Amino acid sequence: MSEVPKRCDVLIAGSGPGGSMAATFLRQKGYDVVLMERRRHPRPNVGESLIPHFWTYTDAAGVTDRLVAERFIAKAGAFADWEGERRHMAFRNYGFSRPALHVERDVFDHILFNHAVGNGAQAFEDCTVQDVEPGETVVTRYVHAEAGAGTIASRFMIDATGQQALLGRHLDVRQADDDFRFVAIWGYFEGSSYMAADGTMQPPENARTIAPTTFVTGLPYSGAGWCWHIQLRESTSVGLIVPTERIRQARSQPGGLEAFFLQQCAELPQLSILLQRARFIPGSLNVINNYSYTSARMTAPGCFMIGDASGFIDPIFSIGVTLAMYGAFTAAWAIDRSLRNAERAESSRAIFEQQIQTRMAVSRALCRPAFRAPAYTEGRLKAAMRLYSTAEHGLIRDVTGLSGRSINFERMSDPAAA
Ligand SMILES: Cc1cc2nc3c(=O)[nH]c(=O)nc-3n(C[C@H](O)[C@H](O)[C@H](O)COP(=O)(O)OP(=O)(O)OC[C@H]3O[C@@H](n4cnc5c(N)ncnc54)[C@H](O)[C@@H]3O)c2cc1C
C-alpha cells in the first residue's frame, strides 16, 4: 500500500458514482486528487435503475466505452400498475438514442472507481473519513485499516459519503424530510419474468432481445408506498418503499421483515404474477431507514457536498445516480474555477450551491404525490422548469403521471412550453 499523502489539491470522501466521477473530472483538469473509501470495491449499493441522462457525464469522464463493454441490461422505459391503471413509457419516444440501464451497482461503481484510479487519483480503500474542518486549507481526519489514524490538508474537499452525509451532520445542516418518511426493503429473486415496454410479460431469458422496463406498482395502503421490480443480468431486484409507521408493525410480526416482504410480494397483483416462478435468494434482504433528507447548506469554506451527501428524496424517478454525477461535474467545475482565480472562489461556491439546491427542490416537488399538497408554485422552480427542452417536459409529464405525481409538474411548468 502506498502511503497516504499529507497534502493534496482535493480530498474526496466516498467513492460511489459521485466521488469517483468527481475524482476523474478533477484529474482531467490536472489536479492532485486523493479519494478515500471506507469499504472495498466491489461492494453492494442500492439504485440499479438508471435513466439515459447519465451518459452525458460518463461521456465527459471518458468511461462510456467501459460501461458499454460490460453489457448491462438495456431498459426500454417504465411500466406502472398504479391505482388500477396500467401505463407505460419508452425513452426512445422522447428523443433518446441511447438506452437506460439496469445495473448491478457493485460492478457499475467499481468501473467508475477503477476509471478514477486509471486517471491518476490516489485511492485508499478501507479508509474512513472521520471529520472535516472547512477553511482556506481544509483539514480532514481519517482512519485507515492498515496505516491507522491520520490527517490530510487540502485546498478543497468533496463530501461524497452518500447517506452518511458526513459534512452535513458535522455542520448540523442535514434536515430529515418529514414529508417523505419511508423505509426501503429490497431483496433479490432468480427466475422472475418482467414487463416489456409494449405491456407484454416476458421470461427472464428474453431480457437481451426484448428490453425490460422498470416495473413499479403502488402499495395498497395509504401513504404513497410503492414497489419496484428491476430485471438484472442474473437476478431481479424487488424493493418496497413502505411508510415508516407501517414498518414498525411489520418488524414485530412473526418472521419479521423478511416474512413481511415476501408476503407483500405475493399479495401485489401484477408483481405476484411476475414472481410466480421465481425463487427468493436467501439472505438477500436489505433495509434503509429514513433515507429522505435535504441540506440547508451544501457548501462550507473549501467544501462541497455532492450526491446523496447533499440530500436525497425518493427513488421513484431513478435520478439519484444522475444527480450524483451532475454534482460531481459541477463541483469539479467550481473547484477548477476557484483554483484558477482565487477571487472567484466565493462566486463559484454560490453557483454550485444554487444549482444543486434548485435541482434538489425540483426533484422534491416532482416526487410529491397529489394528496401531499400544498404543492410548489415557487418562481425559482418555475424558472428552472423553463430550462428543460420540450421533449424533456413531455418526458417529465409522462413519467410523473405514471405514479400519480404530475400535480407539481403542471403547477411548475408553463403550459405553452409543456
Ligand atoms: C431505496 C433506494 C433506491 C434507489 N434507487 C435508485 C435507482 O433506481 N436509480 C438511481 O439512480 N438512484 C437510486 N437511488 C439513489 C442512489 O442510490 C444514490 O443517489 C447514489 O448511489 C448516490 O451516489 P453517491 O456517490 O452520492 O453515494 P453512494 O453511492 O452512497 O456512495 C457513497 C460512498 O461513500 C462511502 N462512505 C460513506 N461514508 C464514508 C466515510 N466516512 N469515509 C469514506 N467513505 C465513506 C460509502 O462506502 C460509499 O461507497 C436509490 C436510493 C434508495 C435509498
UniProtKB/TrEMBL annotation:
Q: Does the keyword Manganese apply?
A: no
* Record-level Gene Ontology MF annotations: oxidoreductase activity
Q: Which residues form a coiled coil?
A: none
What are its E.C. numbers? 1.-.-.-
How far does the signal peptide extend, from start to end residue? none
**Which parts of the chain span the membrane according to its record?**
316-335
Q: Which Pfam families match?
A: FAD_binding_3 (PF01494)
Domain FAD-binding positions: 7-343
Q: Which UniProt keywords apply?
A: Membrane, Oxidoreductase, Transmembrane, Transmembrane helix
* InterPro entries (UniProt xref): FAD-bd, FAD/NAD-bd_sf, Flavin-dep_Halogenase_NPB
Against PANTHER family, the record matches this protein to:
FAD-BINDING PROTEIN (PTHR43747), SLR1998 PROTEIN (PTHR43747:SF1)
Question: Under what name is this protein listed?
Answer: NAD(P)/FAD-dependent oxidoreductase
Recorded source organism is: Sphingomonas canadensis
The lineage, from the top, is: Bacteria, Pseudomonadati, Pseudomonadota, Alphaproteobacteria, Sphingomonadales
